[in-house]
Amino acid sequence: MKKAVDDSKFYSIVVFLFALLVRWLTSLGPFSGKGKSPMYGDYEAQRHWMEITYNLPIKSWYYNTTDNDLLYWGLDYPPLTAYHSLIMGFIANKINPEFVALHKSRGIESPTHKLFMRYTVIIGDLLIYIPAVFIYFLGNKSIQSKGKISCCLLALLYPGLTLIDHGHFQFLQLLKVSFVTLIAFLLCWLPFLRDFQDALQVLHRLFPFARGIFEDKVANFWCSLSIVIKFRSLMTQDTQILMCLVTTIILLLPSGLHLLLKPTMRNFKLALVNSSLIFFLFSFQVHEKSILIAAL
């Protein structure tokens, strides 16, 4: 028994170090938008959100102003992401104020800043994702001892999943989970709920209907079908939104009703996979990162 425990600890350390090494080696490669002005890519988007959240009051984060040009990587992620950017912005300013200097920091790609950006990702994994993976799999009694380490390795090395927190839901605990989720949601949105117009502006940024039924980089069902049917020229925006809404709801019903009538863990997992794929394939204006939910 003692040897089995020692072996488990040894392999856990090996998996941890290997996962860390893979992440670090990956970070040595090129990043999105490197040297490509005027937008510079997703790397600049993440940095710019630190700049905006650090320098501007919360009320201005989602509004187009002289200090916050929404056409230049305007913040269009939920408040929790904005709070994360704010924390990183504070740290960046302590290291080097030039990292988040308002307007003046656009396109910064110095070696020191790149190291800082990489550390924010690595440390996030070390503090949240990696411990969650080990705690979940090593403490899961339904998995055989020999398979625990393999599961950890698989979860930590999955290429499409980087900073997604791993959660496990029991039906018996659904009310507790729902309560915690609602409280967390309320706390995130509280600064924006004080003014109804602010809340509407955040929703406007999160649901960019003006961009059309899909963007060129997201190959979902509507993008594929647009080769034959030109939605943007044949339908009004309201009709497109309604079409996506009805299609998504209809396709969600079978697995949802099945889960409602037969609430088992297996059916719950199947419903999660089905709903995540349906939202990615058929909802209006899908973000490419939505496929990570299905992968999870």
TrEMBL record:
Leader peptide range in chain numbering: none
Keywords: Endoplasmic reticulum, Glycosyltransferase, Membrane, Transferase, Transmembrane, Transmembrane helix
Broad class of enzyme this protein falls into: transferase
Pathway(s) it belongs to: Protein modification; protein glycosylation
GO molecular function: dolichyl pyrophosphate Man9GlcNAc2 alpha-1,3-glucosyltransferase activity
Keyword Endoplasmic reticulum listed: yes
Stored InterPro entries: Glyco_trans_ALG6/ALG8
Record's protein name: Alpha-1,3-glucosyltransferase
Organism of derivation: Dimorphilus gyrociliatus
